[in-house]
Design goal:
By secondary structure, the chain is mostly beta strands. Helices cover 1% and strands 33% of the residues. A hairpin with a 2-residue loop joins β24 and β25.
Length: 568
């Protein structure tokens, strides 16, 4: 195995003619530069290809380095002889997200009892037998390869080759990768491939009709030589393949040589090619992000629809060994609003957050899913968070300003007559009329017998009529007009006796501070009530009630202070 020489810590792409040696530097973040061991930590992931043939590998997002391990195919066995072992080698390479790597997994050479075919990946075929009683040579093992496949046309892209082992002859072991085939006589087995050319062909020591093997070539082992009875073993494939062994007719024959291995100079932490038994494979190990969520479900309390709740936070942490990239977040229902704070790469052991708010569009329970898309291979394409909330009734609006007062409505109809008040106190006794004139004094006669009583004098003239007695108490009653106590206030004259109210004409005025609040002029009816419509609202307080009476041609004035207990 050899590594192409260069001082650059870049990928070195080497052409066959050595004249075109191109170094392509692709994000040179090698494992050694990062201080990481070559062996894969537990948080890293490995993709392994084991089926013989071609494959591709796309570098995941956030991955900048991969460790490649390759095992070439073993040569085929032939009776008691064993095929050579394939080479195992490994190294770390810088890559970039989205880069496509071409993978070639080797096949093992065919056992001589089952044919002579070389293994997938350029293994040389065993030599043919011409007569019954012998066997063909066993096939050489194929090579496993890794190369970059999405570089511009014409650019060499080979990264690594793990060589195959040589196929065996009937009684001669095939050569391990990088080694010549086993020999009974010198020169009969094929030589190993080298850095610059294929392995030499095996040459028979006697001319008995048997033929030499073929020389190895680039990516191909040489075919074994044909013979009458025992064909030569095929050469193992590699960067340059091993030579095919010579066939055997009258004396001994030869086995195939092993191929050469290769790893580009851009590789770091290289494990040199070593012959190793086992089925061929190619594995790629790389640091990988691991997404971890603080919660798998978010539930909101009842929220009035048409409003937006406060945020609930979901924390996203990268517990892996490579940057985590959140490519997209979405909610499957418009009722949940997202504020994504996860931008760019999230380094290992770092975290970011997404705030979720609930904005129900209608009443009732709403369930949704928060889909988070990332480059975590274990959760691709997405990881989910359950969302749930309940929309409640809409909130009451704010109280508006008080509107302007409307116009005063018309006065309502007169209410029923109030209850009759108690009878007022009796009026004062009128003055005694003047005494009539005395008669003339007669002469004093002798005292005689008492004479008869004198005649009764005339009745004196009638004195002036005194003021009328008060008719009764006065009550204030408020009346409801159009459902509101704002319009009418009434002063009611309480009923007196039938004799005190008959033929009485009254002028009544209710006032305070020279302001008239109610008035009335008219004949007291037989019920003895005076109902006075108020001209303006009457607040609680003390008012003057002035009454002028006229009865039988006499007038009287009465003023009474009255406290209305209710506002009108």
């Amino acid at each position: 195995m050899f590594q192409s020489p260069t001082a650059l810590r870049c990928r070195v792409l080497v052409s066959r003619d050595k004249a075109a040696r191109l170094a392509v530097c692709v994000v040179p973040l090698l494992l050694a530069g990062l201080g990481l061991a070559a062996s894969a930590p537990a948080a890293e992931r490995t993709t392994t290809f084991s089926a013989a043939g071609g494959h591709t590998f796309t570098v995941p997002a956030g991955v900048s380095s991969v460790r490649v391990a390759l095992l070439g195919g073993a040569g085929g066995n032939c009776y008691g002889a064993s095929g050579g072992q394939g080479a195992l080698l490994a190294g770390d390479f810088s890559v970039y997200p989205g880069e496509i790597l071409s993978i070639g997994v080797a096949g093992e050479g065919t056992d001589c009892r089952n044919g002579r075919t070389g293994g997938q990946g350029g293994g040389g075929a065993g030599g043919t037998q011409q007569e019954p009683g012998g066997a063909p040579g066993a096939g050489g093992g194929g090579a496993s390869t890794v190369s970059a496949s999405n570089l511009p046309p014409g650019f060499p892209s080979l990264l690594a080759v793990a060589a195959g082992g040589g196929g065996s002859h009937a009684d001669v072991d095939g050569g391990n990768a990088g080694e010549a085939g086993g020999e009974t006589n010198a020169g009969e087995s094929g030589g190993p491939g080298s850095e610059t050319e294929g392995g030499a062909a095996g040459i028979p020591v006697a001319s008995c009709g048997n033929l030499p093997g073929q020389k190895g070539a680039a990516y191909a082992g040489g075919e074994g030589g044909s013979a009458q009875y025992w064909g030569g073993g095929g050469g193992g494939s590699g960067y340059f393949g091993g030579g095919g062994g010579a066939g055997e007719t009258c004396m001994t024959g030869g086995a195939g040589g092993g191929g050469s291995s290769f790893i580009a100079a851009s590789a770091s932490a290289v494990s040199a090619a070593t012959p190793t038994s086992g089925a061929p494979y190619v594995s790629l190990t790389y640091a990988s992000p691991t997404i971890e969520l603080s919660s798998e479900n978010v539930e909101f309390a009842e929220q009035p629809f048409g409003t937006i709740s406060g945020p609930q936070t979901v924390t996203i942490k990268n517990t892996g060994t490579a940057p985590l990239i959140i490519s997209q977040m979405e909610s499957t229902a418009p009722d949940f609003l997202l504020a994504d704070h996860c931008h760019g790469e999230i380094e290992p052991n770092e975290s970011c957050t997404v705030d979720v708010r609930f904005a129900p569009q209608e009443e009732g329970t709403v369930e949704s899913t928060l889909n988070i898309y990332s480059n975590d291979n274990t959760t691709q394409p997405r990881i989910e968070v359950g969302l749930k909330g309940k929309g409640g009734p809409p909130p009451a609006g704010e109280k508006g300003e008080t509107g302007a007062s409307g116009e005063t409505g018309a006065a309502g109809p007169t209410g029923p007559t109030g209850a009759t008040g108690e009878t007022g106190a009796a009026g004062a006794k009128g003055e005694t009329g003047a005494t009539g004139p005395s008669g003339a004094t007669g002469p004093t006669g002798t005292k005689g017998e008492t004479g008869a009583a004198g005649a009764k004098g005339e009745t004196g003239a009638t004195g002036t009529t005194g003021p009328l007695a008060p008719i009764g108490d006065y009550q204030c009653h408020r009346r409801k007009q159009h459902g509101r106590f704002l319009i009418a206030c009434f002063v009611v004259h309480a009923k007196g006796t039938s004799s005190t109210v008959r033929n009485v004409h009254v002028h009544a005025v209710l006032a305070r501070s020279s302001k008239v609040y109610a008035s009335w002029n008219g004949q007291i009816d037989t019920s003895g009530h005076i109902t006075m419509p108020a001209s303006k609202p009457i607040a609680s307080g003390t008012y003057s009630l002035t009454l002028s009476y006229r009865q039988h041609g006499h007038e009287s004035l009465r003023e009474q202070h009255y406290r209305c207990l209710e506002s009108c």
